[in-house]
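Design a sequence for this backbone.
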């Protein structure tokens, strides 16, 4: 063909050469395509940048479509909508996401690559530390969890992880109480994990009352910020929270 083996399309098109007839069909097709490109270049029209999208080549860029083309698509997790909620605190949601995937470095997982490590929970010192134990079968963390959510969860209250996931994914619940349960879960998860890490690195375990008050205040502050934003349907959230605290 008179074109270098590793030439780019641009180099092949701009290469000064005479068109040939070939015995191999695909080479003739390449010649035809190169000829078509040259004719378009000679038309005097300006080049236009296009993006390859699912619906074809378009001049408009779509971050969503490009992302979908690049990623490996998988079915949505059943708990996804219970974790990635509107008005979430990012660092809380991130820890909740890791916990849902069982990717937190709990001691039962750490000992798989660090043999001989003591697996005892640093909060209660009475059982092996696993995700299910830490959230919230541990005698320390379960008291925090119960204090924060027992009122809002009512008869569906539980301290077992799998049952908690069922509750936070139950969209038939009233919108405001469901948000309070979801946000409270994320706040408690984050705080328990933070306290656990501090104790693991030599700090003293804080009294339960301090943690409870800090969490309650943090949730109230979040609700107050939401009220200032005048979010539709969330106007009386603070009154609802106080009603559950009585």
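Sequence:
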């Amino acid at each position: 063909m008179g074109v270098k083996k590793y030439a780019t399309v641009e180099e092949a098109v701009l290469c000064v050469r005479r068109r040939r007839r070939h015995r191999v069909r695909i080479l003739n097709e390449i010649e035809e395509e190169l000829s078509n490109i040259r004719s378009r270049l000679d038309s005097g029209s300006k080049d236009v940048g296009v993006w390859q999208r699912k619906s074809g080549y378009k001049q408009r860029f779509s971050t969503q479509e490009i992302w979908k083309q690049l990623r490996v698509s998988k079915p949505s997790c059943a708990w996804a909508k219970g974790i990635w909620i509107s008005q979430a605190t990012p660092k809380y949601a991130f820890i909740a996401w890791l916990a849902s995937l069982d990717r937190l470095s709990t001691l039962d997982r750490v000992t798989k690559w660090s043999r001989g490590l003591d697996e005892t929970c640093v909060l209660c010192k009475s059982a092996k530390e696993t995700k299910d134990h830490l959230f919230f079968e541990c005698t320390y963390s379960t008291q925090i969890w119960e204090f924060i959510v027992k009122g809002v969860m009512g008869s569906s209250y539980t301290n077992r992880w799998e049952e908690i996931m069922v509750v936070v994914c139950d969209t038939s619940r009233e919108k405001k109480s469901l948000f309070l349960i979801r946000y409270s879960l994320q706040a408690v998860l984050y705080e328990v994990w933070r306290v656990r890490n501090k104790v693991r690195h030599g700090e003293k375990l804080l009294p339960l009352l301090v943690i409870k008050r800090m969490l309650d205040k943090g949730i109230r502050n979040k609700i107050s910020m939401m009220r200032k934003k005048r979010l539709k349907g969330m106007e009386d959230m603070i009154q609802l929270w106080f009603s559950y605290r009585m």
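The chain has two domains: 1-45, 80-245.
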